[in-house]
């Protein structure tokens, strides 16, 4: 089954509202309407930028979706500093990244939290872009497949096949994030294929073939073609190269 590629820009903690509006407009200006037939393009700005970014995208003209970088799993209440699925949905977000390695490392996010966030999102008809990936120590131990597939199992535990197939998995080896040290296409493919095999065990072949598995970690215009040529890599989750319209658009064009 041919999967539609996805290019998602994770801006991380970059861009004030005014900067976010400029970048979103620059991306929109380059965007050709019919590209939306061939690739799903997503921008993931910080929370405060979501509404302003969304406002400058005319979805009918430019099918660019907006997603958040995080969300909380409780529906409402005394959770100071957190943001609910209803809040991001009302802005017009299509979904949220969950379980990014920076959130796991700096904010103590556990596999259990990730699972609760996936469940909260799909219950609100939003999708999760579930990030998984191993540290350099785990890679050097040779245990990366077991480690990453356990993250996938934990993230989707108790999630129905119907809900899971709306979601996306992003394989982001931590040692490749922001380091300029990209995984080779073969290294990325090996783990992405194992992720799909895990999804097949959980949900069956048909569902696993329909789900998108992205690669993230120093993806750039120079390495994107070789990564996308791999059979189990269905797009990218982009950090640094998503912060400039020109390079992000080049990555989108690589999917056409
Ligand atoms: O973490 C990433 C996307 O979520 C990848 O970041 P870089 O593209 O900057 O390596």
TrEMBL record:
The keyword Isomerase is assigned to this record: yes
InterPro entries to which the protein is assigned, alphabetical: Aldolase_TIM, TIM_sf, TrioseP_Isoase_bac/euk, Triosephosphate_isomerase, Triosephosphate_isomerase_AS
Record keywords, A-Z: Cytoplasm, Gluconeogenesis, Glycolysis, Isomerase
Transmembrane stretches, start-end: none
Molecular-function annotations in GO: triose-phosphate isomerase activity
Location(s) in or outside the cell: Cytoplasm
GO cellular component: cytosol
EC annotation from Swiss-Prot or TrEMBL: 5.3.1.1
Positions annotated to bind substrate: 10-12, 178, 218, 239-240
Catalytic activity: D-glyceraldehyde 3-phosphate = dihydroxyacetone phosphate
Pathway stated in the Swiss-Prot or TrEMBL entry: Carbohydrate degradation; glycolysis; D-glyceraldehyde 3-phosphate from glycerone phosphate: step 1/1; Carbohydrate biosynthesis; gluconeogenesis
Residues forming the catalytic site: 100, 172
Entry-linked Pfam families: TIM
Domain of life: Bacteria
Classification via PROSITE patterns: TIM_1, TIM_2
Gene3D superfamilies: Aldolase class I (3.20.20.70)
Broad class of enzyme this protein falls into: isomerase
GO biological process, alphabetically ordered: gluconeogenesis; glyceraldehyde-3-phosphate biosynthetic process; glycerol catabolic process; glycolytic process
Family label: Belongs to the triosephosphate isomerase family.
PANTHER family: TRIOSEPHOSPHATE ISOMERASE (PTHR21139)
Protein's job: Involved in the gluconeogenesis. Catalyzes stereospecifically the conversion of dihydroxyacetone phosphate (DHAP) to D-glyceraldehyde-3-phosphate (G3P).
Oligomeric form and interacting partners: Homodimer.
Protein name as it appears in the record: Triosephosphate isomerase
Organism: Xiamenia xianingshaonis
């Amino acid at each position: 089954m041919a999967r539609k590629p996805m290019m998602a820009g994770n801006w991380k903690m970059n861009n004030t509202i005014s900067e976010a509006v400029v970048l979103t407009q620059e991306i929109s200006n380059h965007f050709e309407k019919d590209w939306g037939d061939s690739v799903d393009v997503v921008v993931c700005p910080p929370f405060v930028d979501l509404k302003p970014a969304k406002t400058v995208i005319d979805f009918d003209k430019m099918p660019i979706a907006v997603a958040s970088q995080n969300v909380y799993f409780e529906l409402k209440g005394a959770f100071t500093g957190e943001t609910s699925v209803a809040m991001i949905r009302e802005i017009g977000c299509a979904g949220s990244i969950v379980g990014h390695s920076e959130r796991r490392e700096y904010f103590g996010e556990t596999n259990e939290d990730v699972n609760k966030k996936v469940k909260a999102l799909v219950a609100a008809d939003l999708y999760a872009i579930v990030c998984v990936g191993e540290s350099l120590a785990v890679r050097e131990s040779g245990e990366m497949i077991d480690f990453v597939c356990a993250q996938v199992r934990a993230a989707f535990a108790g999630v129905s096949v119907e809900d899971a197939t709306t979601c996306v998995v992003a394989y982001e080896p931590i040692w490749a994030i922001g380091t300029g040290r990209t995984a080779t296409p073969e290294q990325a493919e090996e783990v992405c294929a194992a992720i799909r095999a895990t999804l097949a065990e959980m949900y069956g072949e048909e569902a696993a073939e329909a789900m998108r598995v992205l690669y993230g970690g120093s993806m750039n215009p120079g390495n994107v073609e070789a990564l996308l040529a791999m059979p189990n890599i269905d797009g990218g989750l982009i950090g640094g190269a998503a912060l400039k319209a020109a390079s992000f658009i080049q990555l989108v064009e690589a999917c056409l």
